[in-house]
Amino acid sequence: MKDDDKGVALTPEQTRRRRARNIAIGLALAALVLLFYLMTLFKLGGSVAERAI
Amino acid sequence: MSFVSENVTSSSPAVEPSRGEVRDFVALLKPRVMSLVVFTALVGMAIAPGNMHPGLAAIALLCIAVGAGASGALNMWWDADIDAVMLRTRGRPVPAGRVTPGEALAFGLFLSGFSVVMLGLVANLASAALLAFTIFFYAVIYTMWLKRWTTQNIVIGGAAGAFPPMIGWAVVTGSVSLESILLFLIIFFWTPPHFWALALIKSDDYTRAGVPMLPCVAGPAETRRQILLYSALLVVLGVGPFFMGFGGIAYGITSAGFGVVFLLLAWRVFRRTEGDEATTAARQLFAFSILYLFVLFAVLLGEAGFSAVGLK
C-alpha cells in the first residue's frame, strides 16, 4: 500500500478550496518579502550613502 | 509523502479537512471594524507632531490593521457559541462551520504576534506595546471576561476600539500625550450610545444569546437614560480638540454642530419609548453616531492635511 492511500479523501470542492488557500498563503508570503524589502529601504533612506568609505 | 489523498475515498473523522475559503479567513478579520480602526489610527498619525517616512507610516498602519483583524479572529474563536444563536452573527465562519475553532485561534494568534513584532520593527516599542495591549484587552478582557459578565461590557470593552488613534500617535511620537488621550476618550464615550442604540433594537438577539447587554438586564428605560448621559459627555469631549488647539475652526464648528444633532437624537431616544417611533429614534441615533465619529475624525485629518501643505 502506498503512503498516499492512508490519507483523507478530498472532494473536488475541498481540493479547490485548499488550492485557493495555498495561493493566498503564497501571495501573503510574497507580500511579506516585499514588505521587509521596502521597510529596509525606507529605514536606510539616504543614510546608506553617508557611510565612511 | 502526503497526508491527504485526492484518490482514495476512505476518510478519518479525526483529520477533518479544512472547509474554509479565503474569504472566510478575511471575514474573521472583521473588515468593517478594521476600516474604522485604520481610519482613526491614520488620524492619530496625521495630527501627531513629528515626521515619519510615508512608506513606514503606511506599513505601520498595515500592522495596526492586521492587529485589529487578529483580535477580531480571536473574538470569533471564543464567541462562536453565542454567535451561533444570534441572527446577526450566525453566518460567521466559525458558527457556520466553514472554519474550525482551531483554525480561527491559530490565525488570530499568528497575526497578533506578527503585527506587534512588525510594528515594533517599523515604528517603536511604545506603539507595539500599545497594540499588544489593545489585542489583549479586546480578546481577553472584553471577549472572554466582560462581555458575558456585566452590563458595562461595551463601556469598558469600548476602550479596545478607542486605542487606535493613540497607537497612531505613538507610532509617530513614541509616546502618549494629552491629545491622544482625548481622542481615546472621544471614541470611548462614543461607544456606549452607539452600541446601546443598536442593542435597543436587537435586544431579543442578545437575550437569546445570554449576553447581559444593558437593555436586556436593566431595561430599555435605564438604557435610554444612560445613552443620554454618555451622549452629553461625548458632545463635551467632542469639542475638546478645538479648545486644546489641535482642532481648528472647521473642527470646532463641525464638532459643535454635529454634537447638537447627536444630543437631539439622544433626547428623542430618551423621550420616545414605545412602538415604531422608539425603534426609529434608536435606529437614527445608531446611524448618526457612525457619521458623527467619521466626520469629526475626517475634519481633523483634513485640517492636518491642509496644515501639512501650508494652507492653514
Write up this protein.
The complex is a heterodimer of chains A (53) and B (312). Chain A has 53 residues and is mainly alpha-helical. Chain A contains one helix and one strand. Chain A has one helix spanning 12-44, and one strand at residues 8-9. The N and C termini of chain A lie far apart (65 Å). By secondary structure, chain B is mainly α. Chain B has two domains: 19-176, UbiA prenyltransferase (Tetracycline Repressor, domain 2), CATH 1.10.357.140; 178-312. Chain B is built from 15 helices and one strand. In chain B, α2 packs across α8, α6 (125-146) runs antiparallel to α7 and α8 runs antiparallel to α9 (178-201). At the A-B interface, β1 and α1 of A face β1, α3 and α5 of B. β1 of chain A pairs parallel with β1 of chain B, so a sheet runs across the interface.
Keywords:
heterodimer, A: 53 residues, mainly alpha, B: 312 residues, Tetracycline Repressor, domain 2, 75% helix, disordered N terminus
How is this fold's topology laid out?
The complex is a heterodimer of chains A (53) and B (312).
Chain A: E1 8-9, H1 12-44
Chain B: E1 4-5, H1 22-28, H2 31-47, H3 54-78, H4 80-85, H5 101-122, H6 125-146, H7 153-162, H8 164-173, H9 178-201, H10 203-209, H11 214-217, H12 220-238, H13 240-244, H14 249-271, H15 275-308
Helix pairs in contact in B: 2-3, 2-8, 2-15, 3-5, 3-6, 3-8, 5-6, 6-7, 6-8, 7-9, 8-9, 9-12, 9-15, 12-14, 14-15
Short description:
With 53 residues, chain A is mostly helical. Chain A contains one helix and one strand, in the order E-H.
Q: CATH superfamily of the largest domain in chain B, called what?
A: UbiA prenyltransferase
Number of helices of chain B: 15
How many DSSP H or I helices of chain A?
A: 1
Outline type of chain B? flat
Shape of chain A: rod-shaped
How many structurally independent domains of chain B? 2
Helix/strand/pairing category of chain B: mainly alpha
